[in-house]
């Protein structure tokens, strides 16, 4: 029997260590995705759930495109995602720059910021739903009335014009610590000697920020924006608990439509089709991220 070399033993050990992770990915991520894709091309509902499910082709996709609420939900999803993402990034970047400076209670303040992100989303949604309560018992209405900014309680979650605003505010609050943490970590990796040389050459702080900090942080910024888009685009708990997609579908998003079709209407094929539309969007965003990060690696 041929004796294994050291390199072969190392390679086998590597396979043994990666095998559990590979099994997990195949069993709990790849298989459900593939099964969901296949189900979207079949007629799967209560009538066909326990028998042969006829092949439906693209009929489930045509059906969801004919739904009047689908276009509104897609627009709401994009609005919710892009507005949240913009303010999460701006506020998170500002806080990252603040915490990159040395001052008293820096570490404690940063830790308190992270608490917002670590709290389970269901708990966050429940607390904010109480804060946005439409009567005077809601903390936000109570404070605004005490400050004489409003004369009567605002129906935050019952008004089509204000419900989406309330959701975006909560999602910004939730996502800022995540942006701050990653951007602050990126700032700590920047070479200080380059900034010192630029300062000696007469560069102002603003010039250093625009022409040095941002270009050097570009890979981190792209990753933060991409992850933020993915997390926000697939949000479900926050919207479902706070508004349920209402009032009048003003906060209906793709995730809530997929849930309703699957668990309320028992149209599993159509629910899978909506989920796959979301998957396609996220895959495109991921590919764009890989393209830009690949360019940055080549340039570096």
From TrEMBL:
Instruction: State which residue ranges cross the membrane.
Output: 12-35, 77-99, 111-131, 163-188, 209-233, 268-290
Bilayer topology: Multi-pass membrane protein
- Give the principal location in a single coarse category: membrane
Recorded superkingdom: Bacteria
Biological process, per Gene Ontology: transmembrane transport
ABC transmembrane type-1 domain segment(s)? 74-289
Q: Ribonucleoprotein: is it a keyword of this entry?
A: no
- Keywords, sorted A to Z: Cell membrane, Membrane, Transmembrane, Transmembrane helix, Transport
Kindly state one GO CC term assigned in the UniProt record.
plasma membrane
* Locations listed in the record: Cell membrane
What the record says about family reads: Belongs to the binding-protein-dependent transport system permease family.
Protein name per the record: Sugar ABC transporter permease
């Amino acid at each position: 029997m041929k004796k294994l070399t050291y390199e072969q033993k190392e390679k086998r050990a590597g396979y043994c260590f990666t095998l559990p992770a590979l099994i997990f990915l195949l069993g709990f991520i790849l298989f459900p995705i593939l099964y969901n894709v296949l189900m979207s091309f079949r007629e799967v509902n209560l009538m066909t759930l326990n028998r042969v499910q006829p092949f439906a082709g693209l009929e489930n996709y045509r059906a969801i495109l004919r739904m009047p609420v689908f276009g509104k939900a897609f627009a709401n999803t994009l609005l919710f995602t892009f507005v949240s993402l913009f303010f999460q990034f701006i506020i998170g970047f500002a806080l990252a720059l603040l915490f990159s400076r040395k001052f008293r209670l820096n570490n404690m303040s940063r830790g308190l910021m992270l608490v917002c992100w670590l709290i389970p989303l269901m708990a966050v949604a429940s607390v904010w739903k109480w804060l946005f309560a439409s009567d005077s018992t809601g903390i936000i209405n109570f404070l605004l009335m005490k400050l004489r900014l409003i004369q009567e309680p605002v129906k935050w979650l019952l008004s089509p014009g204000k419900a989406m605003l309330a959701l975006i505010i909560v999602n910004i609050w939730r996502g800022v610590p995540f942006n701050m943490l990653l951007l602050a970590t990126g700032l700590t990796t920047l070479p200080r000697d380059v900034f010192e040389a630029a300062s000696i050459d007469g560069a102002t702080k603003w010039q250093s920020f625009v022409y040095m900090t941002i270009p050097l942080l570009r890979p981190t910024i792209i990753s933060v924006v991409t992850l933020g888009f993915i997390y926000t685009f697939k949000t479900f708990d926050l919207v479902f608990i706070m508004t349920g997609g209402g009032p009048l579908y003003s906060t209906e998003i793709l995730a809530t439509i997929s849930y309703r079709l699957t668990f309320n209407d028992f149209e599993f094929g159509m629910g899978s089709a909506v989920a796959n539309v979301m998957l396609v969007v996220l895959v495109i965003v991921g590919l764009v991220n890989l393209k830009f990060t690949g360019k940055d690696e080549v340039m570096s």
